[in-house]
Design brief:
The chain is built from four helices and seven strands; from the N terminus they run H-E-H-E-E-H-E-H-E-E-E. By secondary structure, it is of the alpha/beta class.
Length: 164
């Protein structure tokens, strides 16, 4: 799919936060979890949507079993910012306590923008979390890319998915 890329994605501020080396981590996701992310991005278009990834992280293997959309509290700039509802986070976190599963990442969409992280994204990213970005153009999924912070937390590293 050929899609226009806004000029800012070529700027130093954007390119400098992407590591030149990809992560060697493995990543698997349940078909239903992937569908949840895709549908949320499509239904939310042209606004940014966000949500939580639930699963297990065994060493360097991210295993996502469930994705849950959570309210984006940023209504002023809903087209290019997200602010995940902290109450929803706490509720899901509580629910998972005592189980083998936990919150292991945050997904969000980029309406009419590529699946590349922005300087805002890295400013809000947490160590040890997985950050998929869903690029959606004209209500259609263009691409999903998966990111995690590099060791020094200054850059995002691409995590290769195992989705066919
Ligand atoms: Zn973003």
């Amino acid at each position: 799919m050929k899609t226009p890329v806004p000029e800012r994605f070529f700027s130093e501020a954007y390119t400098s936060i992407i590591s030149s080396t990809a992560s060697t981590d493995a990543l698997t996701i349940a078909t239903r979890a992937l569908a949840t992310m895709q549908q949320a991005a499509i239904h939310g278009y042209p606004h940014e949507i966000c949500g939580l990834l639930i699963g297990t992280l065994g060493g360097t293997h991210w295993q996502i079993t469930e994705a849950r959309q959570v309210a984006n509290l940023n209504r002023e700039r809903a087209s290019d910012r997200f602010h995940l509802d902290p109450a929803a986070y706490q509720q899901i976190d509580r629910e998972l306590r005592g189980t083998t599963h936990e919150i292991i990442g945050v997904f969000h969409s980029h309406p009419d923008c590529p699946a590349m992280p922005s300087p805002t994204d890295i400013g809000h990213a947490w160590e040890g979390f997985l950050y998929p970005i869903i690029s959606v153009y004209a209500s259609e999924i263009a691409e999903i890319s998966w990111w995690r912070l590099s060791e020094n937390s200054k850059q995002f590293q691409l995590v290769t998915d195992n989705i066919s």
